[in-house]
Amino acid sequence: MGDRRMASIFPECDQLKQNYDKCFTEFFQKFIAPNYRHKYAINPCDRLHQAYRECVEQMESLQSNLPHPQIISDTGESRFNQLERTLEQFQVHQLYKQSCFVLPFYLRIHPSTDVVQENARHLGVIATDFGARSQEPFNQKIHTLVSGLQELDQMRNQFADVKVPLELLDVLDQGKNPQLYTKEVLERTLQKNKEVNGKVETYKKFHAALLKELGEEMPEDTMTYRNIRDILEK
């Protein structure tokens, strides 16, 4: 039986997809073998998958920015000028993607976690209705999920100093929105701040009343205290 593979949605990326599919199919067969040493497993298809993904992203960007042929004819703009403007938009898009790397790490991790969650959901959908043609997309989703987890693992050093409150984990276990926990913490902090400010004002009033009483009972000692305090404060 011949080696039948699903073609890429973009003909320009088809060869890259075929190379990746062949590599990952061979690797996956070895990976599920009982004698395979998973602890030291290294996916040899990462670069092929990255090259194919970049090709698809570029083609999607170009396709999404290309105007409809009817619009070109109505506006009177030549196809050459339209394509030239589209390429400029694509270059701006690429610069925007590169600028994302300078964002704070806590903003960069959200797309990665969203992709992992979405791939896990797709994997579950395929597994619940597994058919004769489901093996290849199932393998692709497994590889994409593993690649996403590897990307998150590579970012772990950026979160070495991040402390997650245990109370937040309880909120997540209860199925609540973690933003509600942030709101509750801010409200408690505000209330505590009000209490502390109230105590500070009370001590200030007590300090003023005490100095007044001491000034009446021991004027000389009180004056000496005031002079020493002024010197220390300077």
UniProtKB/TrEMBL annotation:
Keywords: Activator, Disulfide bond, Nucleus, Transcription, Transcription regulation
Pfam families found in the cross-reference section: Med10, UPF0203
GO MF, one annotated term: transcription coregulator activity
GO biological process: regulation of transcription by RNA polymerase II
Highest rank taxon of the organism: Eukaryota
GO cellular component, one term: mediator complex
Keyword Ribonucleoprotein: no
Xref: InterPro entries: MDM35_apoptosis, Mediator_Med10
Location within or outside the cell: Nucleus
Assembly and interaction partners: Component of the Mediator complex.
Entry function: Component of the Mediator complex, a coactivator involved in the regulated transcription of nearly all RNA polymerase II-dependent genes. Mediator functions as a bridge to convey information from gene-specific regulatory proteins to the basal RNA polymerase II transcription machinery. Mediator is recruited to promoters by direct interactions with regulatory proteins and serves as a scaffold for the assembly of a functional preinitiation complex with RNA polymerase II and the general transcription factors.
Family note: Belongs to the Mediator complex subunit 10 family. Belongs to the TRIAP1/MDM35 family.
UniProt-recorded name of the protein: Mediator of RNA polymerase II transcription subunit 10
Organism of this sequence: Necator americanus
Lineage: Eukaryota, Metazoa, Ecdysozoa, Nematoda, Chromadorea
